[in-house]
What we know:
Blueprint: E1 2-14, E2 35-43, E3 46-52, H1 53-59, E4 60-67, E5 72-75, E6 77-79, H2 91-98, H3 103-108, H4 113-122, H5 125-141, E7 144-150, H6 157-173, E8 177-185, H7 196-217, E9 223-228, H8 235-247, E10 251-256, H9 264-270, E11 275-278, H10 284-292, E12 296-299, H11 302-306, H12 315-320, E13 325-327, H13 341-351, H14 356-363, H15 365-370, E14 388-391, E15 408-413, E16 416-419
Parallel strand pairs: 1-4, 1-5, 6-7, 7-8, 8-9, 9-10, 10-11, 11-12, 12-13
Antiparallel strand pairs: 1-2, 2-3, 5-14, 14-15, 15-16
Bound molecules: N-(iminomethyl)-L-glutamic acid and fe (iii) ion.
Residues 83, 112-113, 116, 227, 255, 258, 303, 330, 332-335 line the site of N-(iminomethyl)-L-glutamic acid.
Amino acid sequence: MENVDLLLYNAGQLCVVPGGGAAQRGADLGRLGLIENGAVAVRDGRIVAVGPSDELRAEYSAGMLLDAAGRCVIPGFVDPHTHLPWMGDRADEFELRLGGASYMEIMAAGGGIMSTVRATRQASVDELVAANLPRLQRMLAHGTTSAEMKTGYGLDTESEIKQLDAMHALQQQQPVELTYTFLPAHAVPAEYTGNTDGYVDRIVGEMLPAGAEWMRAHDTVLFCDVFCEEGVFDLAQTRRILEAAQRLGYRLKVHADEFAGLGGTALAVEMGAVSADHLVHTPEADIQALGRGATIAVALPGTPFGLAHHDYTPAKAILEAGGALALATDLNPGTTWCESMPMMMALACRYMGLTQAQALAAATLNAAFAIGRGEQVGSLEIGKQADILILDVSDYRHLGYRYGTNPVQAVIKKGELVVGP
Ligand code: NIG
Ligand code: FE
């Protein structure tokens, strides 16, 4: 018998979510590769076999045997869009919004993102780590095993780099694997009010080069993202920033069509961005572009829900065009503070019309491709990292159907049990 480190067996349903090296696009979304009474064998943190329990139990002896007792086993969730790390909260602004003020009005009046910027600029790296560690722990408890994080609450060179340093420190202290995005183009800071082009000059001339230096010093690749939106960065400014970033070796992401469709999604596809995110008011031509390109469409249903808006990402149109759709939380203190990917699945099923199987593939395999890690995580395919969840239900269709309580019983990260059972 061959020996492995971990054999997880007796999974009532084991959802592989196979990609074969690619995201699930269009009508293919929702292919779960479901194995009844399944098992998965892990060695050195990687999946070496997946199949029926009786076969794997006959084939492998294991240092650790884990009985899933008929429960559902799925890949760890990947959250490809969060705004961690930040300081403070905006409960006061939520109260204003309940009184009728809009998100963009509050932002134009100097609140919104700028209020979190003021709090984040004042914080030290240690304070940022202390404030954001519990958020990552909640994400992990809800099954997120890999996540993206963004700067964008510094908006000056020193504070943006400080956010990167905080991300790096957070990575050393907990098991959720982090992907870093540089987002100095998240808002126009107060110092540049009325002079957005001046701030874009600063981003291109000083901030992006500083981030590129950080990326070399830390032997990693950063994403660069831009909030392409009416009243923030227009399409020409977005292009200028992304082109400069691409020249410096960043991979690209775009915040597009959250409130207005400016063409940011088509630009993302044209430039080969890894993802285009939000995509609520996406023009038809841009939806068609997603069908032709490799860029992953990341829907963030927590955001319209958090803003009590009624328009969500047009998932069906994106899938009909042949696009690849992923889900993320957008976790941030302004529009949506929610650490739970299962909650995003519940919203996507109701407001984007996804089936539970589609939502599951969008929250795992496709989400991994949305941060450029689809070869390593996001599914229970042989060779991938053993990032695995045991749910407290036996049927995956409870995901999306139930909400507000945590369906995750145990979390395995790189073959190690890090939560429960
Ligand atoms: O994705 N759109 C811009 N950024 C965030 C909101 C950030 C904030 O309000 O602090 C978003 O919704
Ligand atoms: Fe966002």
